[in-house]
Design a protein that fits this description.
CATH superfamily of the domain at 8-92 and 206-288: P-loop containing nucleotide triphosphate hydrolases
Helix content: 25-40%
Shape: globular
Strand order of the largest sheet: 6-7-8-3-9-10
Strand content: 15-25%
Structural class: alpha/beta
Order of helices and strands: EEEHEEHEHHHEHEHEEHH
CATH topology of the domain at 8-92 and 206-288: Rossmann fold
Distance between the termini: 44 Å
Amino acid sequence: MSSGTIQALDGPATMKLEGVGIYLGQSQVLRGIDLDIQAGQTLVVIGESGCGKSVFLKLLIGLLQPTEGRVLFQDQDLKLLSEKRLMRLRLKYGYLFQSGALFDSLTVEENVAFPMKQQGIVSEETMRQRVAECLEDVGLPLSLWTRMPSDLSGGQRKRVGLARALVMQPAVMLYDEPTTGLDPIMTGVINDLILKVARSRPVTSIVVTHELRTLATVADRVIMLRPLARLESWESQVAFEGTPEALRKCPNPIVQAFLGGHSVAESAHPLPPIPDSAHVATPRGIQP
């Protein structure tokens, strides 16, 4: 396959990391990451602060390039694509930022429509129809169309951000700490929306989170990263990679400590299970 062309894509995408490492300045953030992300799969990325989770997302979308190894989208090496082709490729991604990252000077409608206006690829009528569909998909009434971000609650801003991420019908959805700053009820709403998107759309999802309830609700597979600052050069940065059920049973004390929320020295004590979702959605990959 030519490295300079982008495949037409009508469904979810496959992605692969082969021996990926990256330095930011003099500090190495990721090292030796090998991972296959299957089409239509929801991968949840967990780990302590500073383990490189957000950098991992930026590598997947080509905002950062690896110092070592390759990041592949549908078998295409992102490093070999020109910036123009990378820009085209990013149209296949939706990205929900931690804060929602709405434009303060634009209304809800204008925020959701922004990616379409930037590309100039749809009529005004089609644009309004897509905005209406996406707002409905995330459970927001059309009465919010004319509101400014400052008039919205934290949960509403997150849902508007999700509607904007979905408006271009992406093949890949990236979620960066999607429930940060939300109360438990709204955390459940966002988790259920992530699950709804994964089930109702042809999309591959990657979710970075520290929230175990999010993991229990949405994950098909899980990868747990460790901060390189705590590791010897011979130690793997990946503490775990597998299913949520295997994570629950993993004997690795590092994994146990993370799930239990205490130090490794305390991990010999009984651990609470990954919490089951308290919401309507049925957790993926975990039997109640």
